[in-house]
Amino acid sequence: MAKDLKVDRKSLPISLQNVYKAYGSVRALDNISLDIEAGEFVTLLGPSGSGKTTLLMTIAGFVRPDTASIRFGDEEMILTPPHKRGLGMVFQNYALFPLMSCAENIAYPLKVRGVPASQRKVRVAEVLELVQLSGYEDRRIHQLSGGQCQRIALARAIVFEPRIILMDEPLSALDKNLREHMQIEIKRLHKKLDATIVYVTHDQREALTMSDRIAVMNNGRLVQTDTPEDLYRRPRSLFVADFIGESVAIPVEKVGNTLMLKGKPLKTAIDKLNGAGPYHLIIRPELLEIVSQKINGDLNDLTGDVIETIYQGDSVIILVDFGDNQQIIVRVPTSRAGKLAMPEVGMKISLGLHPDDTIVVEEDAL
To answer: Is 229 helix (H, G, I), strand (E, B) or coil?
Structure first.
């Protein structure tokens, strides 16, 4: 990095306290509080209309909340205009200047900050190398692919060495393969940059791939913030369990201190359940075991009748009728499926679920 461009390269923490924003009777942000550590990669994840982009634009200063405290480090930012917050921004539509070259696009934040042309040239070359587009200085935007445009947008966002970078669904316009490649590239860049990143997406796999922590939003509320693994393995609500990863929810009944699944005690490693219920067993398709003989006493018995098998290249899906209009999905890697005697439609299949793999959540309140 160019030494004379540095002011303070220590990344900043972000503290959001009681962020509230309403549009008429609609609560776009409903008293959200979230602390983001310096240098952390946090993703705001949720369906359309959940409030994730509104929250990001509130951090950026483009949306003024009705009430809130927004701090970057020790500095309160609620009254600071967007152009004085020192943020790097990457947008969904790239927002590149079509009549400028790649170098001119990237250098623009430096130019408005009064950085001399000689320093701008050096810095542009550095960030082009960082995003693996060295030699593209003179290319025009219309000569670039979607992935290259996104790299140029990233380069422009980091060229002035911001301590906080905000990204609003930057990969949604790319095809699947390119999107997955760019996820790895952004994650690689984050390791090289001394910056705090707040990233917005509705794609749960993208969030799981890239994030240190994920903040799941729904209806303007923050419903759970955790590491990707904890969100997947220990969701706290039916909404989070359904939104993060592939799953099937089966109702279970609480009798005393025991959870019952179809009249049988559910074997689980869960110490206690919070809330009054009702409860659901969350079944992850890849955690089910196909048992060739009778289910042993260590596993939960989820035996049912095969409805359909679906080949998906890397895996085979088996749809199983569990009775009471409930279906279970089993996902078997193709490499393993070839070694098993796969059941035919109509056959009974013995499925076991280990107590350590049981996930039980309370039904979401309306």
So the answer is: helix
